[in-house]
Amino acid sequence: ATPMSIMVGVGRGARSGVLVRDAEALQVMETIDTIVVDKTGTLTEGRPTVTRIVALDGADEQRALRLAAAVEQGSEHPLGQAVVSAAKDAGLALPEVHDFTSEAGGGVRGTVDGHAVLVGNSSYVLGEATDADRIEARADELRADGATAIHLSVDGNPYAVLAIADPVKETTPEALAGLREAGIRVVMLTGDNRTTAEAVARRLGIDEVRAEVLPEHKSEVVQQLTAEGRKVAMAGDGVNDAPALAAAAVGIAMGTGTDVAIESAGITLLKGDLTGIVRARNLSHATMRNIR
Ligand code: ADP
Ligand code: MG
Fold it and tell me: Which one of 64, 75, 146, 170 has the fewest CB atoms closer than 10 angstroms to its CB?
């Protein structure tokens, strides 16, 4: 390759918010036919807010928020931060949490005021609870319009379901339209619940969804598609996306995302604007044409 053409391409990218860290990414980008896109923080703003608290029989909404937030104080997850903000906005003083532990892709637990409190997805929180199906149905109602529903249990008893909404980025529909026009297959990849993921995908016109994927399995999805002969780019923002970003032919990180994601990707999109993917592809094509 001609280093000069690459340098020109890198410079042009930077001026349009496409930061190229790895020259090879710029060369390969034009050959991409599939893009795997993380949901939370990539398609969506990644600034979720609590929109509803459904207290289960006899439970108290305010207590639910207070206990959930107390445990989530220890979490770095955007969902956890949403719960803590909601409690603060409600003017609640948060008790201390003891024995805090978190499980990636599952949730968090700890002891609050002497009670064992769990917050997270259904398998993490409900486990074998006898009325799990009935409670999960309540959660599914909240998920039907794209909210993430998380469960809260106190001393092993299901206590409440929290709905957390994360708006789609303003630029996402335009970016997806551009990718579709270029004939690129779009696959949504998320650790979130299937019902939520499908509701968001439907709204965005994405017809391929891989949901409930554990952090350690995200890169396998990229490897699988690659083994099927696809040229795969992966776009993501989180720590849990880093291995998948590294496994893809081109990794695309959000500038708004974690440092680990940015370091694992060849390209970073300033402000997390996904329309940069189409610009990166055009830039790659122009650069390679110059070289040829
Ligand atoms: P994504 O791939 O969408 O970024 P994650 O893999 O980080 O999602 O998390 C998957 C799911 O695990 C979340 O949708 C949520 O149900 C649960 N979860 C993970 N961390 C937390 C937390 N701190 N509080 C509550 N739920 C959590
Ligand atoms: Mg994410």
Answer: 170
